[in-house]
Amino acid sequence: MLVLGVDPGSRITGFGLINKEKNELTCVHSGYISPPAKIPFYERIYFIFESMLDIMNNYHPSEMAIEDMFYAKNVKSSLKLGHARGVILTAAVKCGVRIFEYTPLEIKKSVVGYGRADKEQVRTMVKVILNLKSISCLDTSDALATAICHLNTTHYLTTSRKSS
Prior knowledge:
By secondary structure, this protein is of the alpha/beta class. The chain has one domain: Nucleotidyltransferase, domain 5 (2-Layer Sandwich), CATH 3.30.420. It is 52% helix and 21% strand. It has five helices and five strands; from the N terminus they run E-E-E-H-E-H-E-H-H-H. Strands 3-2-1-4-5 form a five-stranded mixed sheet. Helix 1 (41-59) packs parallel to helix 2, helix 3 packs across helix 5 and helix 4 packs across helix 5. The longest helix is centred in the C-terminal third of the chain and has 26 residues, at 138-163. The chain starts with a strand and ends with a helix.
């Protein structure tokens, strides 16, 4: 199963594609989308939408795991994040990709074992889990962590349904 993990943002959107075969996780492709900062906000959002469509159309993930909204102190930043999430969700629907949402706490707990882990701890564990030498950007490691969280969660749900 190929899963696309996404860490949404209006300035930087991290993404990572992880394939799971026989309980082995492999990073297929990862990176980040960074629209030019000098273009208007609505063009940055469209840039993210088009980039996500390209990724989904090139790799054909069956499912997408995305970081859910969290409460932020800055209302303007939250609204911009909401716009970015909206175009990413729209791209997934357009491509027929099933969507699953996870809170930052769930993601960190799944990958690090501690819900208050910092971004460096998440990156370190993602590198270990996926046997990667480096990860270019913290947003990319967060996206890969989101995909790992989903694959761990769906494995748990599948296993618990079989044993019931």
